[in-house]
TrEMBL record:
Major place of residence: cytoplasm
Residues bound to Mg(2+) 2: D116, D119, E279
Keyword Hydrolase: yes
The protein's name in its UniProt record: Fructose-1,6-bisphosphatase class 1
Organism annotation: Neotamlana sedimentorum
Length: 332
């Protein structure tokens, strides 16, 4: 039997392979791990809302019940803010960036965290899986000064860590610090994440395509043609269509089995729907670390220099050969 390893042990063991090995990134990852467990606990109770009360109700402790996405946002912000490691946060739930001045207003935090605390939250009501997505950069302004907008507007290739939590049939935390991708599964009985998926690699090709085909009429020509290609009877095709509508779940499945995920721009959503900073960038980083490819309409996601914190972007990622095929359709 192979040796069991917890996420905590893994983080400590791999600390020295981080690009800036001061132990601070480990602490940051530990705080994200803690918040993930709290959110997991709450997400798992979501089906009991009618019995024990939902958003707007008052719980047994006399506290107002929060919507799950607000709860997740608060827990991640608290966990990150509680330690003097990060100097700022961008969250899908908050319009502006959050500055963390730290103890004695020291502004000593070296990192910024960008996150979607509960992605795919429309899935909660129907008991389908949701996720948390996070991205970490080193600040570019000097330590000791207040964080600035430019600290958050860095191209994705400068991320030093990224990951996601999937609250699914099992809860998993998958992350990379630039040295491959590892996945950890939560044992809910004891509250520990265990290394279950070491060194994940996306198969070079696959037979799954994931896209909201209801929007087909509004898609760019190249994407329409690619979708038709996926459906043709030839070679290994037609591919299988799988779409949960929860980015983390669709991404996770395709990463393990091989496949392509598409969220194109459309005549309805001219910029696309997904957010560059806390959806596309972290997923693109994980994709490349696992040997896959992630692009926007005509460039690598990780090369894009962001212009605002909630920027949207067309997003395509997955198995390298499938993305390259899509690229050939987009070029024409
Ligand atoms: P959200 O951040 O408001 O939850 O939206 C993001 C979600 C993704 O998880 C998912 O891939 C996508 O929206 C689904 O969108 P659609 O319902 O348009 O297919
Ligand atoms: Mg989202």
């Amino acid at each position: 039997m192979s040796k069991i390893k917890t996420l905590g042990e893994f983080i400590i063991e791999n600390q020295s392979s981080f690009p800036y090995s001061t132990g601070e990134l480990s602490k940051l990852l530990n705080s994200l791990r803690l918040a993930a467990k709290m959110v997991n606990h709450e997400v798992n109770k979501a089906g009991l809302v009618d019995i024990i009360g939902g958003a707007g109700d008052v719980n047994a402790q006399g506290e107002d019940q929060q919507k799950l996405d607000v709860f997740a946002n608060d827990k991640f912000i608290q966990a990150i803010t509680n330690r003097d490691i990060a100097c700022g946060i961008v969250s899908e739930e908050v319009d502006d960036f959050i500055a963390i001045s730290g103890s004695n207003e020291s502004n000593n935090g070296k990192y910024v965290v960008l996150m979607d605390p509960l992605d795919g939250s429309s899935n909660i009501d129907v008991n389908a899986s949701v996720g948390t997505i996070f991205s970490v950069f080193r600040r570019i302004t000097p330590v000791g000064t207040p964080v600035e907008l430019k600290d958050f507007l860095q191209p994705g290739k400068d991320q030093i860590a990224a990951g996601y939590v999937i609250y699914g049939t099992s809860t998993m935390l998958v992350y990379s610090t630039g040295d491959g991708v590892n996945g950890f599964t939560l044992n809910p009985a004891i509250g520990s994440f265990y290394l279950s998926h070491p060194d994940i690699k996306i198969p070079k090709t696959g037979n799954i395509y994931s896209v909201n085909e209801g929007n087909y009429t509004h898609f760019p020509q190249g994407v329409k043609k690619y979708i038709k290609y996926c459906q043709q009877e030839e070679d290994e095709r037609p591919y299988t269509s799988r779409y949960i509508g929860s980015l983390v779940s669709d991404f996770h499945r395709n990463m393990l089995k091989g496949g392509i995920y598409l969220y194109p721009n459309s005549t309805k959503n001219k910029e696309g729907k997904l957010r560059l900073l806390y959806e596309a960038n972290p997923m693109a980083y994980i994709t490349e670390q696992a040997g896959g490819k992630a692009i926007s309409s005509n460039q690598r996601i990780l090369d894009i220099v962001p212009s605002n914190i909630h920027q949207r972007i067309p997003f395509y990622c997955g198995s390298t050969e499938m993305i390259e095929k899509l690229e050939s359709f987009l070029k024409n």
